[in-house]
Amino acid sequence: MKSPARLGESARRAGVGPPASGVAASGVCSTAATLTGRYDTDSAATYAGAMANADRPGWQLGTLRGVPVYIGRTWPIIAVVIIATFGPQIADAYPELGGTAYFVAFLYTLLLLLSVVAHEAAHALVGQWRGYHVRRIVADLWGGHTAYDTDDSSPMSSALVAVVGPLANAVLAAAGWLALQVVADDRDVARLLIGAFIYTNAFVAVFNLLPGMPLDGGFILDAVVWRITGSRSAGLLVAGWCGRVLAVLLIAWAVVLPLVRGETPDTFYVLWSVLIAGFLWFGASGAIARARSGRLFARVRVRDVLRPMVLAPDAAPVAQLPQDADVVVIDRQGVPWGVITVTELGQSARPELQDVRAAALARVQPAGWVAEVSSVDADVTALVRVAQDVGGAIQELLVVTGGQPVGLVSIQLLGEALAAAERRPAASATV
């Protein structure tokens, strides 16, 4: 950045731009303590490096159009479970294989990994096409996930990104069926693997289209309700409750249905159903919480918590700084990195400090502290999102509109405003 007009763009290039997470905050910020964090004396660069290391979800396989692709740290767990379950079945069906049956089971885990990565890659590629900043693809214990940022999502974009994942699995299932026509011998191990590959991808495609969070079908339902009502919170709420219903139905299918038939529930299916139902319930509950959070965030506007500020070079003497507004300190490239509040400026009014440079008094801010909003009349959803992405290290947010800095927001004040809004009765029910 060479001027304030380019502040947002330069900050993003410098690694301190605001990540607008594609997944909103999972809980309601009901107290100021939820948002308030204390910043230590480490530099922003050190903090950013630590965050980068902590953000690595596993072992990187490669990149897809600049997006890192990882095997999550929990993936070996599901691989071991599959090998331990599928291996003995193969050994029983193909006794001539001996211990090689477990290697065949391992090959199946690789095919499953391919299916997961293809599913998530479809999400990522369409997300990029729709203007999302895709941060990573991860294959993990629960299958996989794609993390992205977006400043301008829409029902159409959300639906398109969601639907292509199951479609990718449907395409893989169809490709597997074509490959199966080439293998004539029913006893061929390749036929077994291809058949398992077809079944897995067909099941994943159908299951993921079920209309409930956190499945892709839930995001499609969310987008439909969002489009009809104009409220993303309404979409999340409906899709979240549908996800909870799916979780209950899954348990009923595994436990209640066999009992009604006078049969004993299969222990294996019960355990897996409980595991998957727990995953569904947790994700659905997160969507419901995000819907309620969105309703709360919509009741506070950016201008309600905004404080005036001025920009100043970090080499400027304290004597030249204005005394009636907070100061945002920028480096020689124009990138904002520190804050001096009015109170701190008053404490620095002693004669012996007048020649001290602004850099000596500024509190270093962590990477990601610049929050872009459409206008000061927008609600504080973007501010909360940035604050939660950065975490407890942040005390202030620099708010930017159209590339222009418009003020500072105290995390403590933001939390207090949300707490006050939560105590007030809502003017109308929007969710």
Automatic annotation (TrEMBL):
Peptidase M50 domain sequence ranges: 194-232
Signal peptide positions on this chain: none
Keywords tagged on the record: Hydrolase, Membrane, Metal-binding, Metalloprotease, Protease, Transmembrane, Transmembrane helix, Zinc
GO MF annotation list: metal ion binding; metallopeptidase activity
Cofactor(s) recorded in Swiss-Prot or TrEMBL: Zn(2+)
Family that this chain belongs to: Belongs to the peptidase M50B family.
Name recorded for this polypeptide: Peptidase M50
